[in-house]
Design goal:
The complex is a heterodimer of chains A (about 260) and B (about 280). Chain A has helices spanning about 45-50, 90-95, 105-115, 130-145, 160-180, 190-195, 225-255, and strands at about 5-10, 20-25, 30-35, 60-65, 65, 75-80, 150-155, 180-185, 200-205, 210-215. Chain A has a single domain (about 5-75, about 150-255), classed as Rossmann fold (3-Layer(aba) Sandwich), CATH 3.40.50.300. In chain A, the strands form 2 sheets. Chain A has a 6-stranded mixed beta sheet with strand order 6-7-8-3-9-10, sandwiched between helices. Chain A is built from 7 helices and 10 strands. With about 280 residues, chain B is mainly α. Chain B has a single domain, classed as MetI-like (MetI-like fold, Orthogonal Bundle), CATH 1.10.3720. Classes of the chains: A alpha/beta (about 260), B mainly alpha (about 280). At the A-B interface, loops of A face helix 8 and helix 9 of B.
């Protein structure tokens, strides 16, 4: 089983802005870890560090005890927008990361992945012919086709309408149940976090750090309309609100003096 | 027709696509016909004006005189000699200019250091009116083909270089990140991400480069040529044959338009993924 460890990680930019400081986190095998927080709390930055697209200024991120400093073959990522290559068909987009495999195997894997995301008949279409939700499904298929042991998701459903969002969340859970890869999901949607996550990490800004961390013990499949679901949501909301209220306290005197 | 026989959703979809394509094609012919209307009306009006004595047509010859000149040139075989000479010069200059510009533009776009080193110099050279090189090129390469082709290549170079450079610099960082996520090598990143994404802009820069190629072939042939459409222009001026000048201009128009059409037709299959304004019409 893979292990993903984040030890004392900090990230600051050349212009002096400290985006993250003192992040300690270990992602357990087969779990879905949701990172929630307001904008500017560094949650996306943390995910970029995990993906190897950016490098931490301090501390270390290790995957199976090897440091992550550049994109890793067993880490897949789904961005906020599909980021499909417009000049490739849907099938070629899905197969983009496995171009090194023999053609027949590639075709089988692509077709399987497309079928898994419910788009088996869409292989020959152009990305521009897809709806937002379909595009994001293709992006998920592209990430999964390389069979990663870790899947990172950066607010993957935030640009979608509410119906499509719930549909894709459920769908993501089905996909996860197949092979149970580690998933790290960054989101600002509390309901999404409670519906999907095994564990929720609440982050706070300036500088970005972990404010609270708790397990979600609701049994799966989770019914969004139960009072226990609401209770979990309230717990996250309180952790977030606490941080929000502290931030408000800090700004109020400034407003008064101005 | 075989597509109709295919059962299920896919078959009806293909059929729909075909119908759609056909209607777009007839639309295309109608558009071409609309485009040719104005020149025809003007030509007929001028022909009528000369025929009915409203204008003498000595300095601006009527269409009939121009076509007669073209026919005479074609019959004695001279027209083809001139067209061939000019087309070969443009083709050679366009090929050379495009090749060098693409390589320079790609390197300058990819490497910031190279761009800092070379781009200011190239931009400075771009500010020189290309005709100004003519005396130097004649000294360097003689009065025959080499100097002409070089001049055309210089004319083609700058729009293509600028097009490639600008297109690479404006490639979406988010798309490049997809390549990084899948750990593409530098070469694979250029081939699989950068080149395809600059292709639409590249085709436009090729077309403007080709336009300049036609422009500079005239300048090149003005500086002393014994054949070529530019020679026909000079010859027509010196011997007072305006119909020959207009005939040569007309041939330039046809060739320029045809080569541009050819270029966009050849590149069309590579660009059909575009979700563009014109594509949705």
């Amino acid at each position: 089983m893979a292990s993903l460890e984040i030890k004392d990680v900090g990230k600051s930019y050349p212009n002096g802005i400290v985006a993250l400081s003192g992040i300690n986190l270990s992602v357990r095998p087969g779990e879905i870890l949701a990172i929630v927080g307001g904008s500017g709390c560094g949650k996306s930055t943390l995910l970029r560090l995990l993906s190897g697209l950016d490098v931490a200024t301090t501390g270390a991120i290790t995957l199976d005890n090897a440091p992550v400093s550049s994109p890793h073959p067993s880490v897949g990522i789904v961005f906020q927008e599909p980021r499909l290559l417009p000049w490739l068909s849907v099938a070629d987009n899905v197969g983009f990361g496995i171009a090194h495999l023999p053609r027949t195997e590639r075709e089988v894997r692509v077709q399987t992945a497309l079928k898994r995301v419910g788009l088996a008949d869409y292989g020959r279409r152009w990305p521009r012919e897809l709806s937002g939700g379909q595009g994001q499904r293709v992006a998920i298929a592209r990430a999964l086709v390389a069979q990663p042991s870790v899947l990172l998701l950066d607010e993957p459903f935030s640009a979608l309408d509410a119906f499509t969002r719930v549909e894709l969340q459920d769908h993501l859970l089905e996909l996860w149940a197949d092979t149970r890869p580690m998933m790290v999901l960054v989101t600002h949607d509390i309901e999404e976090a409670v519906a999907l996550a095994s564990r929720i990490v609440v982050m706070r800004p300036s500088p970005g750090h972990i404010e609270a961390e708790f397990d979600v013990t609701l049994p799966r499949p989770r019914d969004r309309l139960t009072s226990r679901f609401d209770e979990e949501k309230r717990r996250v909301l309180l952790a977030l609100n606490d941080s929000l209220s502290q931030r408000r306290d800090a700004t109020v005197p400034l407003l008064k003096s101005a | 027709m075989t597509t109709i026989a295919v059962s299920g959703g896919l078959g009806s979809e293909t059929l729909g696509d075909n119908a759609n394509r056909r209607s777009r094609k007839t639309g295309g012919y109608a558009h071409s016909a609309a485009g040719i209307l104005l020149p025809i009306v003007v030509a007929l009006a001028w022909e009528a004006a000369v025929r009915f004595g409203l204008a003498n047509g000595r300095l601006v010859p009527p269409p009939s005189a121009i076509f007669a000149t073209l026919r005479d040139l074609a019959v004695i075989g001279e027209l083809w000699v001139h067209i061939k000479a000019t087309v070969l010069r443009v083709a050679a200059g366009f090929a050379a200019g495009t090749l060098v510009a693409t390589v320079f533009g790609a390197i300058a776009g990819y490497s910031t250091l190279t761009r800092r080193l070379f781009d200011p110099t190239l931009q400075g050279l771009r500010a020189v009116p290309s005709i100004a090189w003519v005396p130097l090129f004649i000294l360097w390469f003689g009065i025959y083909e080499a100097s002409k082709v070089t001049l055309i290549a210089v004319g083609v170079f700058f729009p293509v270089y600028l097009g490639v450079l600008g297109a690479i610099l404006s490639v979406d960082r988010k798309i490049v990140e997809v390549g990084r996520v899948f750990r593409l090598t530098a070469v694979a990143l250029v081939l699989r991400i950068l080149l395809p994404s600059i292709l639409p802009a590249y085709v436009i820069s090729l077309r403007s480069g080709l336009g300049l190629g036609w422009m500079f072939v005239v300048a090149a042939e003005f500086m002393g040529a014994s054949e070529g459409l530019g020679y026909l222009l000079v010859d027509g001026q010196q011997l007072g044959k305006p119909q020959q000048i207009v005939a040569a201009i007309f041939t330039f128009a046809i060739l320029g338009k045809f080569s541009d059409w050819l270029l966009s037709r050849v590149t069309e299959p590579f660009l059909k993924w575009q979700d563009s304004f014109a594509g949705g019409r």
